[in-house]
Amino acid sequence: MNVCISCTLNPSPLLLFSNPSTTRPNSPKRRGSSVKSQLKTVESNPVTSSSGPVPTHRVTVRDRQRGVVHEFLVPEDQYILHTAESQDITLPFACRHGCCTSCAVRVKSGQIRQPEALGISAELKSKGYALLCVGFPTSDIEVETQDEDEVYWLQFGRYFARGPIERDDYALELAMGDE
Length: 179
Description:
- The chain is an alpha+beta fold.
- It has one domain (5-177): Ubiquitin-like (UB roll) (Roll).
- The protein is built from six helices and eleven strands.
- The protein has helices at residues 5-9, 20-23, 80-86, 122-126, 148-156, 169-177; strands spanning 14-18, 38-42, 48-49, 52-53, 56-63, 68-75, 104-109, 112-113, 129-131, 136-137, 141-145.
- The chain has a five-stranded mixed β-sheet with strand order 6-5-11-7-9. Strands 1-2 form a two-stranded antiparallel sheet. The protein has a two-stranded antiparallel sheet with strand order 3-4.
- The chain is globular.
């Protein structure tokens, strides 16, 4: 388990929102229904920097693949995916480095700062796409998860003359085995 030293020394007071169906490993999956997350309160000391307290923003993630909605608070200086995971919220991801499109979302409202998002082009960023693994909220935001292959096609499809490339699950298994 990775623990951020600055968070341990100065944890932030967060209202945590989680979805009960995603926090229990053996719970049944709900598809096609929008489940509002339940509020949990965590008491802790406020995060402060040399310039004062770090602003915190409400993040709403509409997970289209699982049919659930997650709402939680994220400090402006923390990655959205990392904060969600620390609150036992399951969101799609793969590389955690901003190099793929597994955690891609479409921003419906608000702003995300993502200087390390190498997995999506400037063109897609300008159309409202973002990566949760390297995204920092700069305001309250609402985002919707996207199909990884769809985002990949939007970015690279024009380079392939015969249409989308078939996914090679065997190659993916080999790659994941190297980790």
